[in-house]
Write a structure and sequence with these properties.
Layout: E1 3-13, H1 17-27, E2 33-36, H2 53-58, E3 71-74, E4 82-83, H3 112-115, H4 117-125, H5 143-157, H6 183-194, E5 200-201, E6 211-212, E7 218-219, H7 245-251, E8 255-258, E9 261-269, E10 272-280, E11 286-296, H8 300-310, E12 327-330, E13 333-341, E14 356-359, E15 378-383, H9 403-412, E16 417-424, E17 433-441, E18 447-452, H10 457-476, E19 481-485, E20 503-505, E21 529-530, H11 546-566
Parallel strand pairs: 1-2, 1-11, 2-8, 3-18, 11-21
Antiparallel strand pairs: 3-4, 5-14, 6-7, 9-10, 10-11, 12-20, 13-16, 13-19, 14-15, 15-16, 17-18
Keywords: FAD, Flavoprotein, Oxidoreductase
Protein name: Gluconate 2-dehydrogenase alpha chain
Domain Glucose-methanol-choline oxidoreductase C-terminal: 431-553
Amino acid sequence: MATKLPKTDIVLVGVGWVGGIIAAELTKKGYKVVGIERGKERSTEDYFMAHDELRYADRKEMMQDLSKETLTFRHNTTQRALPYREWGSFLIGEGTGGSGEHWNGQTFRFLPYDFEIYSETVKRYGKGKIPKGMMLQDWGITYKELEPYFDKFDAMTGIGGEPNPLPGSPQVKYPNPPMLETPVTALFKSATKDLGYHPYHMPSNNLTQPYTNPDGIARSACQYCGFCERFGCEYGAKASPVVTVLPVAKETGNFEVRPHCVVRKVLHTNGKATGVLYVDTRTGEEFIQEADVVVVSAYQMNNIKLLLNSQLGRPYDPVTGTGVIGRNYAYQTYLGTAVGFFDKDFNMYAGAGALGAQIDDFNGDFFDHTDLDFLHGATIHITQLGDRPIANNHVPPNVPSWGKEFKDASVQNANRALIIKAQGASLPWQDNYIDQDPTYKDAFGDPLLRMTFNWKDQDRQLMKFMGEKCAEIMKQMGAKEVKMTGDEIGDYDIRNYQSTHNTGGVIMGADPETSALNSYLQMWDCENVFVPGASAFAQNSGYNPTNTVGALAYRAAEGIEKYLKTGGSLV
């Protein structure tokens, strides 16, 4: 029998970027907030002297335990889905801060085109440009409407950057200057300028100078140690929930975090939630936390799972294309790259998670797609993340993968290999979706999520085009030899890491028939449940998703306060 706890104003399911922003904003207004977190409570002290590549990068110390909860995967509906037993394609964090603790800090705003992608595509190319089965739709909100919330996230985290020189791109004034120029970024910028493109330093949430944000949170500058991705930042220089929004919420005295607790269901009746049912994993005890508002603020996949387990929203049907929970799952097409081998050395060990330069000339709809077999595009960038030795070992084409020749080539090219990557948009398809697995269950007996996903010709054409552009730039940079990928892409391989940029499944929009949420991230079917996060994206862009996740969280916080005052649907 579950123990019923005293009612609170707001209960959060997950305490990462989304939960942290909402907690900070609403506890400052005097509301009581309880955050339920599946992992442990983290602090900066946890990251002191934690530069252990084997433990954190290879053995995934900060990630969700797949032996207790995972998902199953298949390429299409004719296959039987099997469990994802070992982290590969993406990495879901746990503990306070969530995936916002182990990210790199590359922080972009989605383009105006992204939020109105259907309307803008039809306007420029006609409906015939959209392939059968591609489920493009507008988000129910515009870039202009989201701009103030982007500004809030930028100021809170202290982003450093420079204006994008590409004509037509949004011009953003960042609170801090960009990261340092290096020989690598300078070479990329020179080469792309010579080719007629528009390079700039990528916006970084690794602080470029000491900074105090509007909430009074003071943080130190990045040390360029190279331990960002898959690690927590011991300096607090990399923006994360643990060093930005969570201290603000705790300082109010109105915020309580309950770690090591897994929410199994949102409890609801007659179109309103009453609270959540959760398990304390240390004792096995079940509790009911009642609340006026439930915020489903976990990672994208966990949001989908919780709503399906709770029977909230209509499950998506891939045969008819109807229903909303599990719809429009998208990832990121990150397979177009060029590795260049040089005759000179670069210091690739030093770096930071968002130290890099890029061009947007082939992102969004900045270029003409009339004669191309794909829509949207990709950013093309070079980064200097800090090449840790276990994960980085590039050798030229035709070198054996073992033996003396391989070892000699590995040593020779350890600091002489550079990589240019294209991070491409992932657009939604009727048969790429997420639902409940009929066979496999988690440690609590609840169905696992089942992912049905594969690359389409859209993705293959996009990556071939971008791979060729990457190779063109690498040759212009003076590489003596170039190894390109993107020209031959088979099926999606869930074993190989690309990014933790999973999106969709609980998408926002203007029509309850094709979306689960309105523009305040409020559920159409349950007025006091809000579901911010990347699960709300109607498709994925060529950019990293965190800035847009943060902006939507600020928008949701505003909506929650309105709801607590007035009730009912906010649109």
